[in-house]
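Hi team, as promised in this morning's meeting, here are the two structures we talked about. I've kept the exact order from the run log so nobody has to guess. The first one is mostly here for context; it's the second one we should focus on when we meet again. Sequence first, then the predicted structure tokens.
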Amino acid sequence: MNPERLHSLLEAVRDGKTPVEAALHDLRDLPFRSLGFAHADTHRHLRTGFPEVIFGTGKTPDQIATLLVELGRDGATVMATRIAPEIAVLVQAKTPAARYIPEARILVFGPTPEPTRGRGTVAVLTAGTADIPVAEEAAVTAELDGNKVIRVFDVGVAGLHRLLSHRETVEQSEVIVAVAGMDGVLPTVVAGLFSRPVIAVPTSIGYGASMGGISALLTMLNSCATGVAVVNIDNGFGAGRMASLLNRKRS
């Protein structure tokens, strides 16, 4: 149940439009809904401002489709991450209202909110083109949480002039997500150029000594620039959510 739905329900009870018994019926699934294979956290939107996100890896198409519908039942926009194209087709056959964003490997159930929740723009940067899937996961997550997002891809330090050519655009953002594999240096360079919080995302892109992203992760953790926070390897979702929280308007 999202905050808007709960607010409307409580107002209806107060105004005598909805009987208490009917309201209790609507609230019966708080704080979770048991589905047998999962306990859908229907209360998470109320606690954190963002619905439970479905991690698609390891789940069947039936499970993903069921969770999308159950978590989105009260009008919340729900997302499932790490969805392969062939799985997306099977899920959409069961939930035609779900739409697939292939670049981000995300299924979305519900409308994309207006970009009015953030006080500014989230900039999502990548060092290389191969980092784009993780960057898109971050960008789409931030967009689904009501933020305006700009994308600046393939601006790694092997060609620093590419990043500098976008300097004015990046400077206008409130939060920067910097996604990089290989040597993982992009977040340090970005934090040294711009007075903005930088969320560093190491990716598993690279040759043997990159060790599946561990080299990039260690580089980012050892950044000599200030204002850099690091999420886990390939964790675009975590970066997008953190960027959204940092960009959130204060009430």
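And here is the second protein, the one for discussion:
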Amino acid sequence: MVAAGAASAALPGVLGAQQANTGTANVPMNEQKYKPVQLPAKSSTPSMSTAELDELEHHIHCMCGCNLDVFTCRTTDFTCSVSPAMHRDVIALVNGGHSAQEIIDAFVDVYGERVLMEPRKSGFNLTGYITPFAALGGGAALIVALLRRWKRPEGEPAAVQALPVEGTPEEMERLKELLHRDDR
């Protein structure tokens, strides 16, 4: 009994630490954000296994206000009532014979694209996928172009290129002799 009492006394601390690890400790949950997602059943045979269902839930954002997917929120934040409700909707759709894409489309129809953990790779969203690589490539090309431009011509001493000097041809010849003599 002493062990049971100690375990129950430690439970609030463990749950608080668990919430801190998931990033939801300071986020006020908004249980009113839940909207039912329903489609008429296509068949009475489930369309996927439990593992596939769990993988599908990793692609659906919990709408409670946290930044977690439905699977992670319902398995780590036991104070959230939105993720279990969304999980029940996913199970009902899977049991109704709907495919993963049909289920995701149904959630997008109800919540909008914000319900997806990552934006779809189409339309304007492509700029979010392409822009970082285009900027990196453009920056690399700019650096290469600047380095080629700043490269001094072969055989010319760095001092002559770096400092523009004006003088008579005799003075210039004497200056070149002095510079070449210092290089030896």
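Starting points for discussion:
Residues 125-183 form one domain.
The two ends are 91 Å apart (CA to CA).
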